[in-house]
C-alpha cells in the first residue's frame, strides 16, 4: 500500500468507529472529545504536525491543480453545511430581541 492509501485507510477506520460510537452511545464520544478539545494548545500542535505530514504526502503524489480542485470541492461542501447557520450575517451580534450588545434601544431587525 502507498502512503496515501494507508492515510485513507486510517481515516476510513476512524470515521467508521466514530459513527458507530455516536450512533450507539453519543455520551461516550463526548467523554472522549471533551478532554481533547479542552487542551487546545496541544490539539493545535498535533493538528499542525498531522497537516504537515499528510500535506507532504499529498503534494509529493498529486499535482497542485488536483489538490486545488479537491480543496474547492471541500470548501463548497463545508459552505453547504454551514449555510443554515448564516441566515442573517448582516448583524451577527444582535441578540434574540434584535438589540446590539450594550444597546438599550432594542432595534428590531428589518427584513
Mean pLDDT: 83
Q: Beta-sheet strand percentage?
A: under 5%
Count of DSSP-assigned helices = 4
- Helical coverage, percent range: 55-70%
Shape: extended
Sheet with the most strands, sense and barrel status: none
Q: Total number of β-strand segments?
A: 0
Number of spatially distinct domains: 1
Please state the CA-atom Rg, rounded to the nearest Å.
21 Å
- Poorly predicted runs: none
Element order: H for helix, E for strand: HHHH
Q: What gap, in angstroms, lies between the N and C termini?
A: 56 Å
**Estimated structural class:** mainly alpha
How does this structure look, described?
This protein is an all-alpha fold and 111 residues long. It has one domain (3-82). The protein contains four helices and no strands. It starts with a helix and ends in a 29-residue tail after the last helix.
Task: Detail the topology: elements first, then pairings.
Layout: H1 3-24, H2 26-38, H3 40-61, H4 64-82
Provide a brief overview of the structure.
This protein is 68% helix and 0% strand. It has helices at 3-24, 26-38, 40-61, 64-82.
Features:
111 residues, mainly alpha, 68% helix, extended
Amino acid at each position: 500500500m502507498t502512503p496515501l492509501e494507508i492515510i485513507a485507510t486510517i481515516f476510513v477506520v476512524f470515521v467508521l468507529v466514530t459513527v458507530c460510537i455516536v450512533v450507539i452511545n453519543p455520551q461516550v464520544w463526548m467523554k472522549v472529545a471533551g478532554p481533547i478539545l479542552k487542551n487546545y494548545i496541544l490539539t493545535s500542535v498535533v493538528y499542525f504536525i498531522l497537516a504537515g505530514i499528510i500535506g507532504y504526502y499529498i503534494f509529493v503524489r498529486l499535482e497542485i491543480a488536483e489538490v486545488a480542485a479537491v480543496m474547492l470541492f471541500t470548501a463548497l461542501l463545508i459552505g453547504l453545511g454551514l449555510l443554515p447557520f448564516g441566515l442573517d450575517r448582516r448583524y451577527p451580534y444582535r441578540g434574540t430581541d434584535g438589540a446590539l450588545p450594550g444597546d438599550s434601544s432594542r432595534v428590531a431587525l428589518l427584513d
